[in-house]
């Protein structure tokens, strides 16, 4: 899309979009529509409402946002424009923002508008009348200052989120560990960060034994991806780890239901990859080291077995109780490697880790675990501000004994239908080498799911804007 800034909409002929927020909707519409009024029984600015009309041969779309709104609601409302109203859009669009729209709200609207062009029909035959919005001219009308920066940020945020969508939505015969490694390399070249890829031989040399154990049952070679973004103005160093299980059969503890959705088990990796792209594209003044241990958890004669004892980068032996608790194994090596090799000030991992977190929070927010009240509070605040909500659960030491093993230093699953998300977090904590500022985000219920924008479950890019807000709140 091609964005430009205009003082008014009079010289344009394409679709005019007027978003309405607040209680003074009637006066606002009279002003925007040249004195014309709209019957309140048809449109009164209520949240999630819309109305089409024609004035002087020009099509106008009114979008109701309610009396109070937030960035998440605005993004969704504007995503609907292209997602649900493609027939209204030809070569150009004007969006006329009233004074009620701050820079932040305008940014969210423009992000959402761009997301509306995304769809998951990657392998469908293209129809002759199918629209491509790459060349769409979008005129932004607002009295806010600094709009050029807002347009640039919105484009970069939308681009990162769309990559986050794709990485989850593409099928597992496309999204392999090698694909993720190639994606990271290309993104690093384009946006300016260094990328290292460990193959099986190098991973073995580095002692990433838990990571390699999960990969043993797959014909697709694992890739341990390390991304390093450095800023000359950095005052802090953030470490990220994203679970990159490109498909999860459950291993020999094979899943008995829902396996068709397990291409989404790299939702944490998608968030970390897309966030790295975004941080680098915005040239944020921080240092970032991001790790994605990428594997496929499959089944063959070499697959790791329940009751095996495996090693780990941290030197702890792990008794494998359940091969479907594989995500925590690759995260354990990712966390340990990051802490031992990089001096990060804060450490965050994101993972579609447990059904237990979904049982607790449903599909409303992610589960937050941390050994630091400071980082926990910062993430919770950033989640509320970005609309990507996370909420804390306890990390009491009494839960640690649930992961005790008779034969090894620790076991990967306690085997009980209770406190699954908490005990998984306690397992991970054993591999952070007592780093004082660590947080684990279990995003199983929010990284992939039903939405109005697809007929099947699809990716959400959850975590991208959460991490952006978390970082910028500390700058």
UniProtKB/TrEMBL annotation:
One of its GO terms (cellular component) is cytoplasm. Pfam families: Peptidase_M17. Keywords: Aminopeptidase, Hydrolase, Manganese, Protease. The keyword Protease applies. InterPro entries: Leucine_aapep/pepB (IPR011356), Macro_dom-like (IPR043472), Peptidase_M17_C (IPR000819). It comes from the Bacteria. CDD domains: Peptidase_M17. GO terms for molecular function: manganese ion binding; metalloaminopeptidase activity. Residues 166-467 form the Cytosol aminopeptidase domain. GO terms for biological process: proteolysis. Belongs to the peptidase M17 family. This is Leucyl aminopeptidase. It comes from Algoriphagus yeomjeoni. The lineage of its organism: Bacteria, Pseudomonadati, Bacteroidota, Cytophagia, Cytophagales.
């Amino acid at each position: 899309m091609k964005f430009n800034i205009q003082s008014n909409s009079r010289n344009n002929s394409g679709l005019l979009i007027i978003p309405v927020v607040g209680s003074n909707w009637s006066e606002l519409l009279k002003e925007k529509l040249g004195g014309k009024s709209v019957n309140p029984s048809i449109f009164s600015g209520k949240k999630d409402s819309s109305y089409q009309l024609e004035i002087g041969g020009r099509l106008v779309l009114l979008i109701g946002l309610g009396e109070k709104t937030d960035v998440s609601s605005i993004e969704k409302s504007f995503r609907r424009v292209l997602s649900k109203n493609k027939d209204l859009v030809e070569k150009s669009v004007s969006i006329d923002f009233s004074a009620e729209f701050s820079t932040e709200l305008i940014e969210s609207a423009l992000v959402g508008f761009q997301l509306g062009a995304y769809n998951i029909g990657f392998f469908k035959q293209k129809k002759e009348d199918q629209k491509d919005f790459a060349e769409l001219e979008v005129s932004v009308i607002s009295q806010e200052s600094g709009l050029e920066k807002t347009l640039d940020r919105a484009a970069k945020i939308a681009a990162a989120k769309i990559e986050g969508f794709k990485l989850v939505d593409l099928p597992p015969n496309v999204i392999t560990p090698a694909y993720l490694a190639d994606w990271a390399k290309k993104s690093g070249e384009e946006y300016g960060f260094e990328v290292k890829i460990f193959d099986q031989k190098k991973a073995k040399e580095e002692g990433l034994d838990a990571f390699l154990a999960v990969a043993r049952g797959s014909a697709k070679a694992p890739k341990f991806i390390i991304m390093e973004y450095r800023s000359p103005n950095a005052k802090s160093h953030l470490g990220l780890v994203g679970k990159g299980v490109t498909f999860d059969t459950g291993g020999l503890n094979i899943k008995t239901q829902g396996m068709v959705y397990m291409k989404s088990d790299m939702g944490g990796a998608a968030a970390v990859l897309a966030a790295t792209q975004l941080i680098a594209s915005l040239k944020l003044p921080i240092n970032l080291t991001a790790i994605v241990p990428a594997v496929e958890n499959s089944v063959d004669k070499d697959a790791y077995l329940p009751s095996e004892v495996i090693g780990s980068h941290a030197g702890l032996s792990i008794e494998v109780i359940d091969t479907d608790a594989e995500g925590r194994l690759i995260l354990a090596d990712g966390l340990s490697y990051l802490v031992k090799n990089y001096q990060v000030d804060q450490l965050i991992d994101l993972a579609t880790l447990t059904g237990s977190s979904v049982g607790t929070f449903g599909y409303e927010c992610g589960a937050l675990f941390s050994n630091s009240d400071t980082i926990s509070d910062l993430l919770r605040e950033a989640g509320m501000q970005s609309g990507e909500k996370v909420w804390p659960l306890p990390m009491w030491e009494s839960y640690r004994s649930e992961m005790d093993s008779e034969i090894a230093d620790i076991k990967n699953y306690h085997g009980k239908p209770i406190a699954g998300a908490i005990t998984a977090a306690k397992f991970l904590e054993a591999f952070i080498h007592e780093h004082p500022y660590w947080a684990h985000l279990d995003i199983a219920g929010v990284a992939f799911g039903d939405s109005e924008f697809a007929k099947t479950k699809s990716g959400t890019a959850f975590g991208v804007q959460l991490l952006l807000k978390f970082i910028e709140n500390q700058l």
